[in-house]
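Thread: quick sanity check before group meeting

JM: Hey all, I'm pulling together slides for Thursday and realized we never actually wrote out the predicted structure for the chain we discussed last week. Dropping the sequence here so it's in one place. If anyone has concerns about the input, flag it before I start.
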Amino acid sequence: MLAFEGSLRWLNMLCNPLTLPGAEAIVGALEKSCILATVCGLQEGEARIDLRGRTLQPCDAVLLAGDLQKGALGGACCGVYTIQLDDNNLAGRGKEHEPEKPEGLRRLARALRVNSTVTRLSLKRNLLGVEAARALAETFAAARTLRDVDMRHNAVGVDGARRVAEAMAMRPAQWRQYNGVPLGELMAGTMQQLDLSDASIGLDGGLVLANWLSHNDSLTALELSGNELGGHSSKVVTTAISDMLQLNQGLRSLTLRRNALKSYDAQALAKGLARNTRLTTLDLQNNAIGADGAKSLVEALRSSDTLEAGGGKLWQWFKSAVGAHGSQVRPEKLTSSEELMRLDLGGNPVGKDLLASLKGPCRASINIST
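JM (edit): ok, ran it. Output follows.
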């Protein structure tokens, strides 16, 4: 059995070619030692652990977990508030399609559950997969001190994203930020406009944000362009946004440009739009919703209470990229509403079927041009 004798108090075993059993043996010896404070080379009294870009592997996550648990007993990690682990390989795989090795992350997640000081955790670009996300979700549901988490640029998948969002929704008042989304400010109702364009919030960030906005009416304008929220066959984020639109009574403007939205994403959004009574501006420019997606949105506009109620509820701009050809059409009618001023589907070969579906009673100028 491995044991550390004498007066050894500081040891750094990170970035060594250890096996997981070997790392566990080192942590076991750390736990039994009355003198040794760290096996990750941490300095006592540090408030931040910065291990970014160190090519850390799952075995290193086991070692760090050991240090965190030792910290609860007065080790080197006893006062740590921030852990930065960006740009490593804690999932233990070379590419996204390769099987992950989640044992190290599971061990680290368990250590964080019982930790009483860490408030901020950053795990960007670690090739984290579904299993790692599941383990971390359990931690988010149980940890009492975590406030700020960043897991952008990973591959947690649909199930992993759902687990994370569900876990964080259990105690919404606890969180300040997730993947750059200012959850604390949203919860406090102090924001009216939020620009997250090109923020790479990911599937998980999109689901977390949709959950928060379902119970927050202070935000009036939301910019989410360039976050690749669409294109997933499960329609996971667009369905969540659609559900949010049915509940939220504050949002007036929603921009979803450049999100790789497909026809099924547009169909999911249409369900929320048909029942939303407050949104006045929707921008879906530079996506690929296709003619079927555009039809669904047009039908949603027809049945929208916002359009029929009048009273200043104005759909100012409705934009969607569905192709490359163009034509200009000014149908006599679209809906029974006189509020619709402009429907812009710039740069789109929508086809004769869609043009026919746009016929209806309306004063609006409908542009389908390149």
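AS: nice. The longest strand covers residues 281-284. The chain is about 35% helix and 10% strand.
JM: adding both to the slides.
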